[in-house]
Specification:
eight-stranded antiparallel beta sheet; two-stranded antiparallel ribbon; alpha+beta; 10 strands
């Protein structure tokens, strides 16, 4: 698939259905040192923080993703400064399910899922994606049990106490598939 770059401020999308209902792949790593991706259905798109000398009261376009500590993709997110979020159409639900239930440590799950890796800005995305967010890591921290006001969320989502780690990335490029 060929992509064209679009300004983030020109996007018209519903992140609730795109992320929570549609899933996306978090891609990290590079062609030389290795790469991987994992399915995610949790995350955020928005704006936060300002750069010195930037537009006043105009937060940076950002994406927030959450990754459990045992995931192989986390090692690559920690190693690299750039990561991607690849958004797919409904026809790729089976491939994304495979990507979310198999580890890249154990084999080439990307090939097994039938996806085609491409590389942009030194990291991996996928030719079959409808949209790709290229993000520069700005912040990383673990979620902590004592931060949860609603403890039922801990009981339901973290029975093993394997809290996700949060990564905030500045969206530096948005790519859309050419139709």
């Amino acid at each position: 698939m060929r992509f064209r770059e679009v300004p983030a401020e020109n996007l018209s999308l519903n992140p609730m259905t795109m992320i929570g209902g549609g899933w996306w792949l978090i891609g990290a790593g590079n062609e030389e040192a290795g790469y991987n991706a994992m399915t995610a259905s949790w995350g955020h798109l928005g704006a936060v923080w300002e750069r010195p000398g930037g537009k006043a009261h105009m937060g940076l376009p950002t994406a927030v993703v959450y990754v459990r500590p045992q995931r192989y993709t986390k090692e690559l997110l920690d190693r690299e400064d750039i990561f991607t979020l690849s958004v797919f159409g409904e026809g790729f639900r089976r491939a994304l399910a495979y990507m979310g239930t198999h580890s890249g440590r154990d084999g080439d799950k990307i090939t097994e899922a039938g996806l085609t890796p491409e590389f942009v800005d030194g990291t991996v995305c996928f030719a079959e994606a409808e949209m790709v967010f290229v993000c520069r890591k700005l912040y990383h921290a673990p979620l902590m049990e004592n931060g949860f006001v609603d403890q039922t969320l801990v009981e339901h989502n973290y029975p093993k106490k394997d809290f996700h780690e949060m990564y905030v990335g500045e969206i530096i490029k948005v790519l859309e598939a050419e139709k």
